[in-house]
């Protein structure tokens, strides 16, 4: 598909396409394989690939893409929401918070729990029950589902840390 004749020429000259490359046919749009055009739900001009390349190994979590892994991790809480939109949002938010707790190094996790307690505005006894009944089981679930993340937890993006251990 050629550009609109009255739009700026794609060659970058600043002239309208009609008065620049159209007559000389200097500008040729990039060719795409027929298979890509047929499958492309976003249209041939979108620049979005219909079938993107698979995610490389390090980004896979338990063989799943990150969003799939998060949903699988949160599944028990999502199922308990019984389809209520508000409860689904709460379940997902809680799962994300516990995911972050799970990848926090052990020595820093208690400080995170205390921060959560103050954010939830709970007294220590109520939060202790919530922690043992809800938060810690989700953290354990993460450790069981994604043991490779536990091995890496605390080592990523730490300037000056020994990464060879």
Chart the SSEs and their pairings.
Layout: H1 21-24, H2 34-39, H3 66-80, H4 85-102, H5 106-120, H6 124-145, H7 147-152
Describe this structure in words.
The chain is mainly α. It has two domains: about 5-55, no CATH class; about 60-150, no CATH class. It has helices at about 20-25, 35-40, 65-80, 85-100, 105-120, 125-145, 145-150. The protein is elongated. The chain starts with 20 loop residues before the first helix and ends in a 13-residue tail after the last helix.
Provide the descriptors you would attach to this structure in a database record.
165 residues, mainly alpha, disordered C terminus
What is the arithmetic mean of pLDDT? 75
Order of helices and strands: HHHHHHH
Radius of gyration, rounded? 26 Å
Main beta sheet strand tally, sense and closure: none
Please report the distance between the alpha carbons of the first and last residues: 56 Å
Task: Compose a concise summary of this entry.
It contains 7 helices and no strands. It is mostly helical and 165 residues long. The protein has 2 domains: 47 residues, no CATH class; 95 residues, no CATH class.
């Amino acid at each position: 598909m050629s550009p609109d004749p009255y739009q700026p020429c794609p060659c970058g000259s600043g002239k309208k396409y009609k008065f620049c490359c159209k007559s000389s046919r200097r500008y040729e749009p990039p060719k795409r394989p027929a298979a890509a055009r047929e499958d492309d739900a976003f249209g041939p001009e979108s620049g979005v690939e219909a079938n993107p390349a698979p995610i490389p190994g390090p980004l896979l979590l338990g063989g799943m893409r990150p969003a799939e892994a998060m949903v699988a991790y949160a599944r028990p809480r999502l199922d308990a929401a019984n389809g209520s939109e508000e409860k689904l949002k709460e379940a997902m938010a809680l799962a994300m918070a516990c995911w972050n707790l799970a990848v926090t190094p052990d020595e820093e996790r208690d400080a995170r729990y205390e921060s959560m307690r103050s954010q939830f505005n709970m007294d220590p006894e109520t939060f202790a029950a919530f922690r043992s009944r809800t938060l810690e089981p989700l953290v354990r679930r993460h450790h069981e589902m994604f043991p490779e993340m536990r091995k890496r937890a605390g080592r990523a993006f730490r300037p000056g840390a020994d990464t060879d251990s």
